[in-house]
Model the fold of this input.
Amino acid sequence: MMAQTESEPLISVTGLVKRYGDRRVLDSVSLSIGQRETVALIGPSGSGKSTLLRCINGLTAWEGGEIRVGPHRLQAAGTPGPNGAPSRQVRRLLGMVFQDFQLFPHLSAADNVGEAPRQVLGLDRAAARSRAAELLERVGMASYAASYPYQLSGGQKQRVAIARALAMQPQGLLCDEITSALDPELKHEVLSVLEDLKRDGMTLVLVTHEMGFARRAADRVVVLAEGRVIEEGPPRQVLDAPRSDRTRQFLSRVLS
Amino acid sequence: MQASILLPRCIAGPLAQGLAALTLVVLVSGGFAAAADGAAARNERLRQRLADGVLRWGGDAEGGAPFQLRDPKDPGRVIGFEVELADALADVLSHKLGIPIVAEFVQYEWSTLGLGLLESRDFDCIISGFEITPKRREEMRFIRPYYIYAEQLVVRADDERIHGLDDCLDKSVGTLNGTAADRTLEERGVRHIVRFDGQVEPYLDLEAGRLDAVLLDTPIVLYYASVNPKLKNAGPPFGRGEYGIALRPDDEDLAEALDDALVELVRNGRLLSILRRWHLWNADQVALALSPDRETQLRGLGFDADGRPRPEAELPPVDPVDIHVIADSARSWTFPQYAPLLLKAACMTVFLTLCSMAVAVVIALPVCLARLYGPPPVPWLALAYVEFFRGIPLLLLLFVLYFGFSSFGLQMPAVATAIVGFGLNYAAYEAEVYRSAILSVPVGQWDAGRALGMTEATTFRRIILPQALQTALGPMTNDFVALFKDTSLVSVIAVPELTKEYLILSRSSLKFLELGLLTAVLYLCMSVPLGYLSRYLEHRFKSAR
Done:
């Protein structure tokens, strides 16, 4: 779709600064994520992982630095020029999946998936239906097309949410702790969907506490603490032989 | 008359006398011609004024016997001595002007009759036991009075303490709100005046021992107290006053014509017949005879030349109304007779409620959106709307819309006014219901919509609003139920709805309980299903969350 080479990053974050009042949630974060890459963002809670994710697709404004996604550039709040239209362009390239699903409770699973293609891409009802059916099939939810969110388990909801994000045919998915609200036996079904997506070449940015999954599926692990990137590298290196004390401290707490 | 007598004399008499007389003739006949011309022109104007053939008179059938009440034979009809008076006046007018004219009764709220006449001009004149007072004279044009009433004190039959108003100064005395009797009690310094809106309730309270005495006009006493063996008159009637027909001050032609017509009814004995038929004729009515032809009028009113009432035997026979007419209604009205009347009024209530709610639901959305998402100062203005219409009493709003705006020439039919008034008021409530419903949708839903590339507007329309409406439906249904009952307020601007019809019927028959139960059942038929709907929707959407 885009005139881009594999070597060019899909997402590049430069010197991102985000403040809540006096607190610097993101303190000059720079990060680059390539096409088809799977990156796990880990770190203690409050380290700014989710905020970084929300900045990347323009859901949250920030005070300094810039973000490029494909050919689109998002700038800090207050910078001249509109951010609304570029944000929507960015969102076409990057889908997002939330910890608490945020399915639309008034719509069936199929309509949850088909709504955005109809409203944003202008698909007609039939085309949206068939796209929804296809995607629900892909996440193993084909038989639940007519079900409403309240009739689904957490794992099922999250799979529908992934299908919903995929319906816009993004190049990447931003996943914000998408298994945190799930029972252990339900996490598996969601994580296996992610592994399928990775195999199909989807770029994945995962904020996660699933160290096992990060080790198995991630190409790269990025550790955030106090709004800074303190360490990054292949999972084996970062998770098994962390260079920074802060990382070691964090990992010992998570893995124990 | 005089001119034709003078004419032969002036021809026969001496020259000087003849000249003088001639001058007189010219003057007199000239004057007569001018007067005749004036009358002809007035009649022509009146023919245009009354071209639709209807003389509209305002009254309140809640006023009951003998003024205006529902017919014991047919509760859908209004009868009463004022009905017969209005019909007789229309007859005379019709005859004089040579065009067909009928009198049409306009049902109104007694307390707003003045506004209905002067501001909204819903009728041509007031005929409703309307006392002529100096204050009313300043605003309205009264023609000569058609009845002399007095105040009568009534007590329980076994009461030996009270023989007149002087015995009541430290007692509880009931009366009708805003009447001459009310003012009398105030002027006499009665300590506890209990004011009612209906003429029946004071007597009920007196019977029940909650009042010591009731002071009301003699015609009311006749039909509501004297027929009750548990009550008796205390002392003679006193404090005479006049009932008059009131018109707008700028309606002089009609006022003069009605005055002439009333004189005609006095002279020809028709007023006497009406008053006697309704047992209202008494020695006080001598005051209705006014100069110049007082003697003719006295005769017409049933008095001799000295103003003494003539014996009943000498007067033409009348077909008297049963003085127990109220009890008669109570006996003869059956369910199939009054149920359709209440049902019809209930239809108006339903119609008003549905239309008002539709208006409210539509207006509320932009108000709510302006309040939530508008750029300054729009949210402030929307808040001002909400606070204003939520904060002022509905009654006040209806009054201003109907009577206040009509003085600026902005006239709306009463039903439309009611719908607009309720719509504006309820829109304020619904806007707040919407607002809290919209705010109750989790912020994450906005994120989810936006993350899918939807614009804010699309997210609102497709994701937020449908969920908010589900939340709002419960409270909205509740408001709907409240609105059903609030519509009873519109009787102040003369919209005939269920509660007013109940009051009219019950005051014409005293079937308070029976009619009340039916009325309550009708209201419940409207509200209970809505309550069920509300709970059903709430349950359904709660489980969907």
